[in-house]
TrEMBL record:
Name this polypeptide is given: Magnesium transporter MgtE
Gene name tied to this protein: mgtE
InterPro entries given in the database record: CBS_dom (IPR000644), CBS_dom_sf (IPR046342), Mg_transptr_MgtE_intracell_dom (IPR006668), MgtE_N_sf (IPR038076), MgtE_transporter (IPR006669), SLC41_membr_dom (IPR006667), SLC41_membr_dom_sf (IPR036739)
Residue spans crossing the bilayer: 285-302, 314-336, 357-378, 384-410, 422-445
Organism, as annotated: Paucilactobacillus nenjiangensis
Listed NCBIfam families: mgtE (TIGR00400)
Length: 449
């Protein structure tokens, strides 16, 4: 926590331990929801037990709905409570948050907490848990407001007032026909501005943006970002409304996907709880061993050109310079390609590849000229400078091509492009750079010597 957070934390902790319930509630409930969740998650278990006594069920439920911690932490908080209190909180949570939390539990914990829920909620939760992970169905909530198309503005407003406390968002009211098919949407603004006698059918928007329950969550998040919606309806193949996805869930998805992409680029998992060095090593070892085997191919290639190095040992000096520069260029190109793929710019795939190759050529030419001049001034050998310069230009161009092409090919065959991580591209660039360098050196070997 930063200094400002620590000051608020200390103030709340002092009120909790010395000033009593009334003073604590005055201080704690005056905080923003995010600050409340941070404090709740960071106090000691015995202090959290006191907070559970001082707050109402409704207040605790709002904290649990907004907790920004790993699900295992939230489960631990539940286990600190009595079953009766845990049951009350769970039954009052938003359905999507509840399903997400229960979905992370072990079988025994899931059975325990499901049995604590009211019977009418159990079936609804089970249905949400049955949707495939990372799909629209898995992140949607069933707490929305829908009305029949023949309802008047007056009756719709009355429905909104009655259901507002249970709905996760009230700005959009979804309109269905007699067969419960989604046919339109009206906003709260439109309801306020229109005459009470009009029916929803008369002024609703019929061009409703909706997603299928099996759509990938990343695609859904991108569409919401493009259209600036606060929520989107989720339907089945017959356009029956099943739920909605709100913008707060979209933000969570985007954060999750960004973290996953960064993990792929780094070749290591960067999210989750802090792990012991042994666990971290076990998780990273398979990937590093794979890269080690790929690196051995580079070592074998250098060994293949051992006779060339024996003739001109100065060539060995520039191996790491060329491979490192090409590897960095390839990683930059990879980052651009993964980003473009993540926002679904499929119609620009060949433009991405073309731009990265041209970019590689431009960078390569400038790098080649620079290193040729440097080597000439340093080693007084124009031929050596040209070998290093030409090799670097070609290696950077090939690395840019690989960095943009490999993730696109992986995406085409259904593999997450983030798997084409930075370390993988760097290792591949090492191999191609060494091959290019020594191939060029063979042409100029007589001039170098």
């Amino acid at each position: 926590m930063d200094d400002f957070d620590k000051r608020k934390f200390n103030e709340v902790e002092a009120a909790l331990n010395t000033l009593g319930e009334k003073a604590f509630r005055a201080v704690f409930l005056n905080l923003l929801r995010f600050d409340q969740t941070v404090i709740y998650a960071n106090v000691q278990p015995d202090e959290r037990e006191v907070i559970n006594r001082f707050l109402t069920i409704e207040e605790l439920c709002k904290i649990f709905d907004a907790l920004e911690v790993e699900e295992m932490e939230t489960i631990r908080f539940l286990k600190e409570m009595t079953p009766r209190l845990a049951s009350a909180i769970l039954s009052d949570m938003y359905m999507d948050n509840l399903a997400d939390l229960l979905g992370r539990m072990s079988r025994s914990d899931l059975a325990t907490y499901l049995n604590l829920l009211p019977k009418e909620q159990i079936q609804e939760v089970r249905e949400l848990l049955n949707y495939h992970e990372r799909t629209a169905g898995a992140i949607m909530t069933t707490e929305y407001i829908s009305v029949n198309q023949n309802e008047t503005v007056a009756s719709v407003m009355e429905i909104v007032r009655k259901r507002a406390s249970q709905a996760e968002i009230i700005y959009y009211v979804y309109v269905e026909d007699e067969t419960e098919v989604l046919v339109g949407v009206v906003t709260l603004r439109e309801l306020i501005m229109n005459d009470d006698s009009l029916t929803a059918k008369q002024f609703m928007k019929t061009n409703v943006f909706k997603v299928l329950v099996e759509d990938d969550q990343e695609i859904v998040a991108q569409r919401v970002k493009e259209y600036n919606f606060l929520a989107v309806p989720v339907v089945n193949t017959t356009d029956h409304l099943l739920g909605i996805i709100t913008v707060d869930d979209i933000i969570d998805v985007m954060d999750e996907e960004s973290t996953e992409d960064y993990s792929g680029l780094a070749g290591v998992k960067v999210d989750g709880d802090e792990q012991s060095p042994w666990i971290s090593a076990l998780h990273r070892m398979p990937w590093l061993l794979t890269l080690l085997l790929l690196g051995m191919s580079t070592a074998s290639l250098i060994n293949h050109f051992d006779s060339l190095v024996s003739q001109a040992s100065i060539l060995a000096v520039f191996i790491s310079l060329i491979t490192g520069t090409a590897g960095n260029a390839g990683t930059q190109s990879l980052a651009i390609a993964v980003r473009k793929i993540s926002v679904q710019n499929y119609h620009k795939i060949w433009k991405i590849i073309r731009n990265e190759v041209i970019t590689g050529i431009i960078i390569g030419v400038f790098a080649a000229i620079s290193i040729t001049i440097i080597v000439e001034l340093w080693k007084h050998s124009l031929a050596l400078g040209m070998v290093v310069g030409i090799s670097m230009a070609a290696a950077i161009t090939v690395a840019n091509l690989a960095g943009s092409l490999i993730p696109i090919l992986m995406d085409k065959i259904g593999v997450d492009p983030a798997v084409a991580s930075g370390p993988f591209i760097s290792t591949l660039s090492d191999l191609t750079s060494v091959l290019i360098y020594f191939s060029v050196a063979q042409i100029f070997i007589n001039s170098i010597m």
